[in-house]
Input
Amino acid sequence: MQQPPSSAPAYPPVHDRPVRWGLLAAGGIAHALAEAIAAVDGGEVVAVAARDGGRARSFAEEYGIPRSYGGYEELMQDPEVDVVYISSTHPFHRDQALACIAAGKHVLVEKPTTLTVRDTEEVFEAARAAGVLAVEAMWMRFQPVVLDVLDRVRAGEVGDVRSFHAAFPVPFAYDETHRLFDLANGGGALLDLGIYPVTLAHLLVGHPTHLHVLGSTVPTGADALVALQWMTEGGAVVQVLTDSRSHGTTETVVRGTEGSITLHGPINNPTSFTLRRGEDEERVEGDRRGYQHQVEEVHRCLREGLLESPLAPHADTVAIMTILESARRELGVRYPQEDAPLHT
Output
């Protein structure tokens, strides 16, 4: 299907009524999104589905949602649902997103969009062919602090970027049944935690021309400690570390020929940043409303009839997945859902 001209919306824009959300899965992250939708204008949750019907009913009662389903197919076929937020664990994203798209639903898919590059491309290609919006729920990309830093870097306020450094350690007690350590459930620090600093590095500095990977795994085979270093075409060096077993700070630093920017607080939801140029220093606080910024962007895209968000374009999501998949290849981390072994 040929994409329509940019001046024509791909589908009838939703601009004369609230955007009607359906929630696929009823875990903790779905609660966060339901609260975000309720806190902003322009949308409402009209249905929620879970594999356990009782859990879906309890969720619906808590948030005043009119319909709940003990299974996902009914949600996908609900004619009053415009967009489905998919918040199940990673291995289920591909099939659920494709089923929603086939039913004509727009989709916001929790990060990572899928387990692999190929599956991510398949989801986006299906969405384009069906003429529906598809967005990875990488909420960090929609945070005003991050967008402000990006604007300043692109405007040359730190000069030519020379290096980027970020660490995102979040300690979890090792338990082979925990989602983070269970390969069959998409476990691994890289896809769950490391995706944030990798995404930010890609956004601010660029894609690798060379990638070096170090790391270690836990007995289940899931990656727990991963360090990435890469060079960009512009000559900048990126250093990223993620760890599911250690404590530590998460400050992020972008260094350039004319100055530097330090982001403060959690990398996925920074509190502020400091811009330094010579003896001058500027501290900028951010508007931090959690998932609300992400919800507002989906609403904006649906009002304009877009197939992808300009703030999180499909090409970026795929490119970042290639970095993550390449790193897994180096570490020998393979998900059982993958058709063939990964080779270094």
